[in-house]
Amino acid sequence: MGWGNIYRRRMKVCTVACLIYLDYKALQQRDKWISKRCKSKSEALWENAHERNAKRVLRLIVELEGLWVKLGQYLSTRADVLPEAYTSLLKQLQDSLPPRPLQEVSRTIQKELGKSMDELFSDFVKVPLATASIAQVHRATLLDGQEVVVKVQHEGIKTIILEDLKNAKSIVDWIAWAEPQYNFNPMIDEWCKECPNELDFNHEAENTRTVSKNLGCRTKHDDNPSANKVDVLIPEVIQSTEKVLISEFMDGIRLNDIESFEAFGVNKQKVVEEITRAYAHQIYVDGFFNGDPHPGNFLVSKEPPHRPILLDFGLTKKLSSSLKQALAKMFLASAEGDHVALLSAFAEMGLKLRLDIPEQAMEITTVFFRSTTPPNESLETMKALVDQREKNMKVIQDKMQLNRKEVKRFNPVDAFPGDIVIFARVLNLLRGLSSIMNVRIVYLDIMRPFAESVLQGSINRGPMVNDQWIYDTPALSDVEAKLRRLLLELGNDNKILGVQVCAYKDGEVIIDTAAGVLGRYDPRPVQPDSLFPVFSVTKGITAGMLHWLVDNGKLKLEESVASIWPEFGSNRKDLIKVHHVLNHTSGLHNALADINKENPLLMSDWEECLNRISMSVPETEPGQEQLYHYLSFGWICGGIIEHASGKKFKEILEEAFIHPLQIEGELYIGIPPGVESRLATLTADVDNLKKVSGISGRKDLPSTFQGDNLVQIVSMVPPLFNMLNIRRSIIPAANGHCSARALARYYAALVDGGVVPPPHPSSSKPALGSHPHMPKFPVESSSKKRGNRSKKLAAAFKFRTKKYEQAPTSDPDIGSPSRNNSNSSDISNATDPGSIPQEGNVNKIFSNPRIHDAFMGAGEYANLAKPDGTFGLGFKRYHSKDGSLIGFGHSGMGGSTGFCDIKNRFAISVTLNKMSFGAETGKIIHFVCSELNIPVPQDYLRFAETPPEGQLDSGRPLIN
Fold this sequence. Notes:
alpha+beta, 7-stranded antiparallel β-sheet
């Protein structure tokens, strides 16, 4: 092709593009006043414009051929979103273009195969079956009598295609500049990369063989028991060169031949469903798929059961295993409305957003996988898509504080991976195919089994067949090496999905192991920095925050809550003191229990929950009865923390523990945007759930947390706490997200009286504390309501600071209780400060030398806690087999736990994502303690024995 032809070709493309653009822009302006006066006239104007411009596009494509034919074929399939004028005119491109001369075909065959047509074929039909953008197809018969089709590439087409790609790229760049909301650069970039592969028919031949083998087209389906088998045909490749491809002839009906469909009794719905299933198999199971499913690339066999025949595998895409899993995860996240999994899938596939828009991302993805609509509904479909886009852009405009011009040019996608462009194109082509055939396809139903199979296939590869099931970090001790063998056993028995274990002994890390996968539909490995939801383990962290405020003189344990938080004093709660709350003796054990029945999502409303707590009514007198405050504990403590400090809850968490312990990015109560890719997903242990109803009569649990109520709560927990808005909420009793190494470091500091442990071992990658604590996205502006509340808190803090300044200074232990009534000598021995390392200049998060007594309600703090109660002051007391008190900590529903043994300077944490009632956690802790020859807490001792069949380890499952 000479430069003159190239120039003329480019000018024709640009001229038509400008004409069409200006035509529509002028009509937009005109329509602003016409549509208000006469809607029917407005509709007629638009129909005429569509007809006029569709003819321009068709004339250009027929004249230029090349790549533009492919574009026209793609547009002709989008009956779901394009006006009928375009699809009806352009669909003739699916049949055939004007044929190339037979002499040209003969020359190419002679040059490529080294023989004339007479030497190769006993018969060669001169009239082509079809002429497409790149090649022409003829029917022929080989010398041995086999009927074949011969695909012959057009002369000079390579130069034309490459030039067309440049022209298309220029037009796309211009459109993106003129109308930024229509930026097709990712698609054209991927097309530029993949299109040259279509020009090599050896490449197409190999692709055809691969897809045929993957779909089992050459095997008998009766021998294939898989539920995900597909029933399609693919012609066998006979011979290929760069420009000639000879394949088996299959007689079939074209998809646009409706009369033949009716004559042969073909079920259109079944055909399109089977084509969709074939593509679902290619994408999710094989990770290798045909990227060009336009109607011209399909036939339907004339013989029953009228199987689809798949043709033309020139444009194919190979997906990596990780991307295939991410696409499956994106699909299932869309199907289940799981925002966390969706954002995690985006991160895994390299799709980066410039701001935090999970709801909008979910809406877009749901639209992406929406059910198909027939052509007569295309107008409404397009209008709905435009309306949805305008709503999403309004959200972005408000979030980013952009003006109308800025929001028009703002692209919320920061990086769009090229690998998923062809995937998106395939879904759009399949959707258009369904519309052309006038059938409805529910993608979520048809594709789901294939997406599930790829993820379940990876997840079900447990330790027995997956040598990477234990994350690859060196064992820090003989105990850790032995523990890993135990974890492998539990994994092979399907008792564990994902787990982390971290332990400190004498201030040093001796165990830091991660194993398993992040979730039921997330086969990525658990890593040391993965974040697990730990439920009531959070209470131990929240209680620590209250003790930190006491240690820093901002709060007293004997102080009434109402003096700190005036609104709390209503309904006879004025006598409730801080130590009553920590000891679970405030009488508010059932407060907010109705929220689970009324609307569990109210738990995400911090202000509403604090307000309900302040209006709640106690059921017993303060200090009278210890009953587990399973929900109310967190919000009461949270309200106290914010009113006593004048700061937000998360600010105190960071100031007290996150920054001093250097565990940034690995311990949250309410996750920030940007950490979703590290989150473990909760899965219930169904067998254990069935046995929960047997838990009743527990005197330490409130009435709303037993029997059938407990069954309801436990059943609700996984789906509820997998939701993004719940995970992002501040629920100080139940919504901690952390790694085991961050939690263990917290308890390692507590066991040493607040001394910050040495840095975590460098062998643990990524390094503990290396993540930004608040990543990626800009913080939303505070609401007016929140701003007013912050002012109130600041005023309350100012008042309290003044009060403390005026307090007598003769007692150096501000916040300590009176020093009588010490009645626990075994506790005093366990907390002997002499056992804690004493250094001259050491970093500490607590300065009180009797902080262990404060945590456990022992020694001089014994009068503030029930003497024989399960809980001390915020922490659960742990006893050895002989009944002596050895330490403190807190477990959570589902099995996660953290605790420490004071005398032995031992701290351990376990995080799990397959929720059970402590059996696996108990076995892990029992094993580690036994190996170290230190007492096993009674709570875990019973799990060493396997209970009789059908019974839960239950006298006291780990739910608090």
